[in-house]
Amino acid sequence: MNSDVVVSLQDLHKSFGTNHVLRGIDVEITRGEVVCIIGPSGSGKSTLLRCVNMLETPSSGTITVLGRELTDIDCDIDEARSKIGMVFQSFNLFPHMTAIENVCVAQRKVLKRNAKEATTAAQSMLARVGLQDKENSYPAQLSGGQQQRVAIARALAMNPDVMLFDEATSALDPELVGDVLAVMQSLAQEGMTMLVVTHEMGFAKNVADRVVFMDNGVIVEQGPPEQVIGAPREERTRSFLSSVLNH
């Protein structure tokens, strides 16, 4: 395997009962690459992402992240997962903790940082997402976009090698989406390896190095955004894009 490959999925299958959600996915992501996964609801995009850090256990196939096979029965999943940041559609912040406490908690539990180290990292990451003035605010006092940026800061404070974004903007009011996408775009420019499930076609077009179109559990086509979004080869991709872009 190429040493620059950060994430490798080989012949990945996932079924929930009789529902075969992923049907033999093969994909590799190299260091610093931004890969956007697009496709209709129910095509397996989020399941694919959740398999990458073993929130879902694949039915078969192999998942390798940073040279370690997560699907190996002897793999220490918690340790491997500490190198993978994940941002969900729902922000999953602790409501009884301030923004800075939310960003500190996993650092202290997982990375065993002391209070001072965790706080310093948390302050730095909140500043990075433009929320240095919201350190002591509780989630209920923040907009959805601000809560999502706290969630991104929390993931970044763990110093991950790869970031996964699962529809990170789909629960936000339209006017708040831009702030979150801007943070994601700056991460991409800084060279963070990112796997992004999104329905924001503008973001995919402008930021992705590669776009992967999924439908019905398979990768229908993939390539640079100007090809997949601009001049798709497959009829299924074309019909999906026309429904989304003319929406």
Question: In a nutshell, what does this entry contain?
Answer:
With 247 residues, the chain is an alpha/beta fold.
Indicate the topology.
Blueprint: E1 5-16, E2 19-30, E3 34-38, H1 45-52, E4 60-65, E5 68-69, H2 77-81, E6 84-87, H3 99-110, H4 115-128, H5 144-156, E7 162-166, H6 174-189, E8 193-197, H7 201-207, E9 210-215, E10 218-223, H8 225-228, H9 235-245
Parallel strand pairs: 3-8, 3-9, 6-7, 7-8
Antiparallel strand pairs: 1-2, 1-4, 4-5, 9-10
Helix pairs in contact: 3-4, 3-5, 4-5, 5-6
Q: Can you characterise this structure?
A:
With 247 residues, the chain is an alpha/beta fold. The chain has 9 helices and 10 strands. The strands form 2 sheets. It has a 6-stranded mixed sheet with strand order 6-7-8-3-9-10, sandwiched between helices. Strands 2-1-4-5 form a 4-stranded antiparallel sheet, with helices on one face. Strand 4 and strand 5 (68-69) form a beta hairpin. Helix 3 packs parallel to helix 5, helix 4 (115-128) packs across helix 5 and helix 5 runs parallel beside helix 6 (174-189). The mean pLDDT is 93.
